Amino acid sequence: MAHNLCIEYGKARLFYCGEVPWHGLGQSLAGPATSKAAIQAAGLDWEVENIPLALMVGNRHLPIPDHFAMVREDHLKMKDPPVMAIVGRDYTPLQNRDAFRFMDGLVGGQDRAIYHTAGALGQGERVWLLVKLPGTMVVGRDDLLDKYLLLSNSHDGQSSVQMKFTPIRVVCQNTLTMALGNGPSIRIPHRTGMEAGLHWAGQELGLIQDHFENLNGYFLGMVQRPLPSAQFMEYLDAVLPLPEEPSHKDLEAQTRWIQRQERILLNREAVEVLWDQGKGADLSGSRHTLWTAYNAVTELVDHLRRQESPSPSQRAQALDKAWFGDGHRLKSHAFKRAVALLGKP
Question: Which parts of the chain fold into alpha helices (H)?
Fold first, then answer.
């Protein structure tokens, strides 16, 4: 899958409200959108089709049983329409409109203006929706967290539909994406019976939403936990441990070890600076606490890595990693290590 924003006819398939995204692309709306307005503004009002495959032998077309090319219906008029995936008979696509309709059902109807961003990556292989949920969590005196629900729908033939809750820290707009419930997110495979899977996911999300209350308790515990330098280094060692030197001394293994160690040392140095000088690090009552240590890691993933990416496609890749890849796993690990420290004197 291409890890870049879907750009067609000079426009990014993306809408947003509020702060302009880091790449400066997409269609801006004055406020949160309804699903109908969001899908149109983001340019996601297309469907995918499974086209039967055939093998061309001379002038003959030989059907390939149970294999299909997944193609966007608005691309079929092209001479050579791009194929997003080759799928089998049991693969069941979730159309973009159905993804929005499912989200509408979770949050109380299609007329509610709750969509804050929606867009596509690659040629539409991954589509995401981000909706704001009611209520705000207050951590410390001036640190506010909004509550969002993120859905990722794939047309790449491999990835599942994924849903997760994510608090967004208002002071710096970084997403504190964590593993709530079992696993990093709820996943529904693109298989026969997907409708039943979505129904189950809706029930699970209702239960998982209750975890926001527990989550707020963890965050309050972090902001109330001063973190002396020695304990901060302990936290850093647990979150970003240095790799052990390989026992075998061949050049390739040594080179990989040195490169990995250099990357981790740079990340550790960045987290140390952000713990002291990052966004919100000087807010009243939270300076040099476990909360600012945890937020230093999330700021590294959600801001610093993105800012260091020179092109829009690389910044889109950084977003993908922050929500679903290595960045998400690092933030989740940092959260778990912070919770573990809360139990220590």
Answer: 35-41, 96-107, 194-208, 211-223, 229-239, 251-277, 290-299, 305-307, 312-324, 326-342
Per-residue pLDDT for the chain (345 aa), expressed as one digit of tens each? 334 778 888 888 999 988 777 667 889 999 999 999 999 999 999 999 999 999 988 888 888 999 999 999 999 988 889 999 999 988 889 899 988 888 888 776 677 778 999 999 888 998 998 888 888 888 877 888 888 888 888 898 888 888 888 888 877 777 787 644 444 467 788 887 777 777 777 776 665 566 677 788 889 999 999 999 999 999 999 999 998 888 777 888 888 888 989 999 999 999 999 999 998 888 888 899 999 999 999 998 887 766 555 565 666 666 666 666 778 888 889 999 999 998 876
- Largest Cα separation within the chain, whole Å, is 77
Tokens 């208002």 belong to residue: 170
Taking the C-alpha atoms of residue 93 and residue 43, their distance in angstroms, rounded to an integer, is 18
Would you say the C-alpha torsion 41, 117, 162, 109 has a positive or negative sign?
A: negative
Does pTM surpass 0.85?
A: no
Strand 27-29 with 14-17, pairing: parallel
